[in-house]
Amino acid sequence: MNFKFPKLGLRFKLFLPLIFFSILFAAYAQYQWLPQFLSFVQEQEAKNINSHLHSVTEGLVPLLLENQLASVYDNLNTLLINNESWKNLILRDSNNIQLFPFKDITTINNKNSYHAVQDITYLGNTLGTLYLTVDNTNIVNIINMQQQFFLVALVLLLTLFSIAIVIVLEVVVRQPLHYLAIASDKIAQGDFNIDLPKQHHDEVGKLIHSFSLMRYSIRKYQSKLKVEINSHKKTADELFKEKERFSYHATHDALTGLINRHEFDRRLTTALARTKTDKSKHAILYLDLDQFKVVNDTCGHIAGDELLRQLTTLLKNKIRDRDTLARLGGDEFGVLLDFCQLNQAEQIAEVLRETIQDFRFSWNDNVFSIGASIGLVSIDENSDNLTNILSTADTACYIAKERGRNRIHVYEQGNAELEKRKGEMQWVPTITKALEDDRFKLFYQPIVPVNQHRKIPNHIEILLSMISEDGQQIPPGAFIPAAERFNLMESVDIWVIQNALEYIVKYNRAKPDNPMMFSVNLSGVSLSNDTVLAQIIDLIERFKLKPDTICFEITETAAIANLSNACTFIKELNQLGCQFSLDDFGSGLSSFAYLKNLPVNSIKIDGSFVKDINKDLMDFAFVKSINEIGHVMGMKTIAEFVENVSILKLLRDINVDLAQGFFIQRPTPLDELLQGHYNTSKVS
Asked: Per-residue pLDDT tens for 100-146?
């Protein structure tokens, strides 16, 4: 015979086990935990009494040794008074004679009494024995009351816990299942499919039954849909991650993690717009690291990158939370100081400058110190557009670098030096357009022997001018500083080298019996550029030129600024056969000290000394000294800026080798050289 349980709802199925286990737990606590707890409490109380009694006997030892029975009596009597649960306290001596109390009292005996005995000893001798009877009735009553309270509280808590669990299960399990079962009936012809377990007669069984009605309608779609959903989800996740990564890299520098130039421009534009609405004031710092190139050249770009990362960490800790630090270029940083007065901006700039100055970078046993040139521009409602603000800050930074580096230059309206630099910036598009349109023109000026009796080949210096769009000639002094400042000099040098060497080929073909030495100017930028060096060597070999007819002129200041690179550059072309001349010699502070380290063939005495030697004895003495030292070192000497016959005669008197200047011949278009326009008559 099969016994069948009555059909029970899910609510009752959940509640019944909870009630059963609650009753079981309460019974276990009543008959197991509470008796153990009572026994434990009594044991602890006995330990405390024995400990206390032991302390009392130790205190009685000196009194008994001195036979101070009155004090013993007082102490024991006080203990009985102070401890209400102590019902009987008897002291007997070693002969079992009762010392306290003086008369015998009835011993208390009941199930709640506790008897303790403690011998009084001294140096192994028994002085007496102390008998204590304690009535624990109060403690037992308190424990019984706590037991009853515990049972009531436990029953109450279990009841509340059961009710809470039932409520939670009602809300979390039964009701959702019930509602889902109802919803399943409504979508029995819908789009879901699932393999269902065995059905039961409760809400879950009803849900299973409802879902089983619809599983046949969409089983064939489920697997395909799952694959497609997973595929789309994966694609969406990848697109989201790519978007996040692209968004970050679009606004941040990959090396330092700082915001990049584009994001810095956006924030600066926002600050500029804010000044127009709330009249707020801000500031921008443009930082250019000094001596950073030394680290790159000495230890490589990996070391340079690590320096930038370390320095970034230092600088971020020196600005305010609302300020923006950005990497604008290789070793250039920008700082946008939001809501910052000019004096406060100067203080922050000085903190950053000192931080960089104090920073020491170690790499492979090398320790480097660097500095920073900082341009500071205040931003207010009268400030110009973004381009001009950045341009002004960059120019202010350049002035700081020109004035000795590792300093701050604050832009001030009407500053003549800054206006000059801004004027140089206006040359950038002009120079670029002239290069594109091939609107540069080569000129030449003879370099002739001061003493005509010397047999020296004809010699010219090739000079450069720009032709404006309206055909006017622009001297090099007008645009060369801008080309050097804004990284256009390499392109200008390459134009000059290519066109000059092409003309030398043309001249050699036309005048094979009239050899000529050609001097070509190179900027300091080219001395550090392997590309320019390789191109020169390639052109000389391709055009089959005689290298010993080509002399490259480099300025003293450029050579000293790039001494190591200059020596390497010169030696490479010297080995090929080319000559070198050191231009503007004497303009540097340590000209003679550097001269012995530069493998040049001739020195050109700075024209600022030559042009006044007929008027100024100091200039004459300086030119004479340079000439003598040059000859001692086996170098030819060339005097430029020879503007009259008296200067020429003085140069002849002190035995200068060559002369060049307006008195001999003004710069002439290079194309006219083939027509014989080479004047040496004024020297004879």
From this structure: 774 444 455 566 677 888 888 888 788 888 888 887 777 667 766 76
User: Are 382 and 484 found together in one domain?
Assistant: no
For the ranges 207-216, 254-263, 559-568, the maximum mean pLDDT occurs at 254-263
pLDDT at 90 over 90: no
User: Domain boundary at 425, 451, 476, which?
Assistant: 425
Burial 29-45 (b: 16+ CB within 10 A, else e): beeeebeeebeebbeeb
On whether the pTM is more than 0.90, the answer is no
Of the candidates 400, 411, 403, 394, the one whose C-alpha atom is nearest the C-alpha of residue 372 is 400
Is residue 480 predicted with pLDDT exceeding 70?
yes
- Distance (Å, whole) CA 623 – CA 605: 7
Mark whether 510 and 580 lie in a shared domain: yes
Q: How many domains does the chain have?
A: 3
Domain boundary among 109, 140, 171: 140
Going by C-beta distance under 8 Å and a sequence separation of 6 or more, which residues neighbour residue 426?
482
The terminus-to-terminus CA distance of the chain in angstroms comes to: 147
Our CA dihedral for 431, 677, 578, 595, rounded to 10 degrees, sits at -80
- Pair 207, 216: CB distance under 8 Å: no
Mean of all residue pLDDT scores within the chain: 81
Over the stretch 373-408, which tens digit does the pLDDT of each residue have? 999 999 998 888 888 888 889 888 988 888 888 999
Mean pLDDT of 228-256: 77
Residue 21 φ then ψ, to 5°: -70, -30
Written as one string, the DSSP assignment of 498-510 is HHHHHHHHHHHHH
Tally Cβ neighbours within 10 Å of residue 302.
Answer: 10
From 261, 288, 259, select the one nearest 395 (Cα to Cα).
288
Whether residue 564 sits in one domain with residue 439: yes
From the list 158, 110, 157, 160, the residue with the least C-alpha distance to 135 is: 110
Long-range contacts at 592-599 (CB < 8 A, ≥ 24 apart): 592/629, 594/556, 594/559, 594/560, 594/563, 595/629, 595/633, 596/633, 597/563, 597/567, 598/559, 598/563, 598/566, 598/567, 598/570, 599/567, 599/570, 599/571, 599/574
Question: Residue 682 carries which DSSP code?
Answer: G
* Three-state DSSP state, 456: coil
Mean pLDDT highest for which of 13-17, 450-454, 615-619? 615-619
More reliable by pLDDT, 259 or 225? 259
- List residues bridging with 101 in a β-sheet: none
551 and 419, same structural domain?
A: no
| Residue 29 maps to a domain | yes
Tell me if 474 sits within 8 A of 467, measured CB to CB. yes
8 A C-beta contact, residue 147 and residue 40: no
Q: Which residues pair with 579 in a beta bridge?
A: 551
Query: What is the residue range of 54's domain?
Result: 10-140
Judgement on whether residues 556 and 587 belong to the same structural domain of the protein: yes
DSSP-based three-state secondary structure for 464: strand
